[in-house]
Amino acid sequence: MLPGTVSRRISPARSAAVAARVGIALGIAVTVCFVTGLISHWVQHPTPWFHWPANPPWLYRVTQGAHVISGVMAIPLLIVKLWSVFPRLFARPLIGNPLRLLERGSIAVLVGSMIFQLATGLFNTAQYYPWEFFFTSTHYAMAYVAFGALAVHLAVKLPVVRTALARPATDAGRTDTGTDTPGTDTPDSGRPSRRGVLGAAIAATALAGVAVAGQSVPWLRWISVLSPRTGEGPQGLPINRTAAAAGVTDRAREGAYQLTVATGGTERGFSRAELEALPQTSAVLPLACVEGWSASAHWSGVRLRDLLAAAGGYRGGDVAFHSLEQGGLYSNTLLPDTHVVDDQTLIALCLNGEELSLDHGYPCRLIAPNRPGVLQTKWLSRIEVRT
């Protein structure tokens, strides 16, 4: 029960009816964010049981875009949810029986982990990291904490949610305790109505989603004023990491540059000119980054399987790619065999009809369908077939 002084001051909008409806929307957003986040992590850190296809080539663009958009949309929903249930923090008894203790504990963990996940995720979209821990592994671990706490909270509160949903959201004069109170659910009361709060929550959630969706959805770019990336950049494509930041400027421009390809027990070096002399192929593929932005581009170069054939043949297995960059987190990546044999997997030499710029990976880079941008290795130095 709430203290009488608190109960008499509670707006009808701070009710189980509002909390339940906003909570359902928040739960959906969190579930989408959780599932797509797991997909992104498993693609970047593959496990033997997880298979990620090469096609359709736009699938990762959709899943990661949905991950960021649903995460941003969860922010106003969480704010409204916390606002609607805030008075219950003062309900008596503060601790109570084991079930109530479990409820309070799950709420504390849920709120803390949700705020952490949404805040750090939002900072990640802007590539701003004002902390000491490694974002990727921490964000991944806390996702299980947040989703587990959500599941426990839902199990404990399910009877309350079912009761709240059985009543119209405009049911006036009821508090979370179910007791009658003075006041109504009308604008004349001088306090926000339940319908007004739900409408504001829907509007704020939609606005938050649209404000960032343009970095993944091209036709929304003109209205997505909060998107960290616009889809534009040198050669028509944004850049996350420059050659100068990677420390490869001089080595990439060396006249003696060669791309070493090791396969079938043999090694062969290819100069940029020799790569250009091989049969050329083109493909339109999106570059989709973990921060949520993506943009399609026209790539041309040597099909990977053709390059492996020219170097000695390909008999199956994953292929490792090594960059001229030394010590970078993603300077070495592994391409599964399903992507190796795909027609659209290229050692790209040109971008949108122009020679690759230094920042886009000159003298050559990997571009494969349905892969995160961090795994599309730039400034290639060595390709090695793993048997």
What does this structure look like?
The protein has 387 residues and is α+β, with helices and mostly antiparallel strands. Helices cover 43% and strands 14% of the residues. Strand 1 (259-263) and strand 2 (266-270) form a beta hairpin. The longest helix is centred in the middle third of the chain and has 32 residues, at 135-166. The model is unreliable at 172-188 (pLDDT under 50).
Provide a quick synopsis of the model:
The chain is α+β, with helices and mostly antiparallel strands and 387 residues long.
Question: What's the main sheet like?
Answer: 5 strands, mixed
Helix share of residues? 40-55%
Q: What is the count of β-strands?
A: 10
**Proportion of residues in extended strands:** 5-15%
Structural class: alpha+beta
Order of helices and strands: HHHHHHHHEEHEEHEEHEEEE
User: Strand arrangement, largest sheet?
Assistant: 2-1-10-5-6
Topology at a glance:
Elements: H1 4-7, H2 16-44, H3 59-85, H4 98-125, H5 135-166, H6 194-213, H7 243-246, H8 249-253, E1 259-263, E2 266-270, H9 272-277, E3 280-288, E4 294-303, H10 304-311, E5 319-323, E6 332-335, H11 337-340, E7 346-351, E8 354-355, E9 365-367, E10 380-385
Parallel strand pairs: 1-10
Antiparallel strand pairs: 1-2, 3-4, 4-7, 5-6, 5-10, 7-8, 7-9
